[in-house]
Amino acid sequence: MKLLITGATGKVGTRLIAHLQSELGLPRAALRALCHNRMIEGLDVVRGSISDKAVVKAAMEGVTHVVHMATCKETPDDVMDVTVKGLFWMLEEFRQSKTAQQFILIGGDAAVGHFFYEHGTPVTEKAPHMAYPGCYALSKVLEEVMLQQFVIQYGINACVLRAPWIMEKDDFRYSLSFGDDVFGGPRWKDMVAPAVAEACAREGTVPLLLDAHDRPLKRNFVHVDDLVRAIGLALDCAASAGRTYNICMNEPVDYGEVAAHLLASRGLKSIPIPSQYHSNWMDNAAAKFDLGWRPRIDLPQLIDLAYDYRRMPGDPRKIWYVG
User: Which domain holds residue 267?
Assistant: First the structure.
């Protein structure tokens, strides 16, 4: 096996490399990373952008398996060149390769609109593509559609692992922050008066996000370790050919349950935050059936892992992408 990983220096990529070596026994010589701005010491690395056909050709040389995670967020100047054209060059090289065996795309629930639209039923892999406003969600739709068409056109062995918001370390704690250190969105400080935001940040108050029906919102998450295990199980899994899988917690995160847990366990208060977002529930049954995968991190663990995590001086919080 020669496995190419794009996005290898991100939160998923770094955990995946460790998992492949420690749990699956792959030697470092079997791994290659395509890196743009960052590097990985001691690994076979091809340096450059996936939007460059020559770079992709060099990275794909002799590769048997691909795990593709490189992407852009809300960066209109780059997203089509990197996310769309980059994937096209990779699939073109893959379909013509004499060594290529499997292509795994790590997708996202942005492709089905996550909490921007009301689905009315559990969100399965057969839900229609529904990009919410912005270039990132559109790019996730285009990725999945392009991969599906390469499967149809050329019969390549490929699958999509569709993940919601991926959490590691103290990410979930900071996703609830009313300060400037908030991780991701919504930006809670912009949804209340400045004085309220300051008080919430100072006291550790958490948002109890309400959906468009004034009920505690349900939103899908997955812990990075659960996603990494799913990738490992998908490798060389015959049942995965041509399939898309939702890789998510068994139940969505309920902001009401989050507020109740933090009050009971840490004495932290909450504040209701009205919104026009919609609760949704991704169904992960297909991944359980085909891959034999089960998420191990439930809601109490997700919360406690994040609130108990203490960063060392050499482990700063980093947000690599705008948006």
Answer: 171-217+253-273
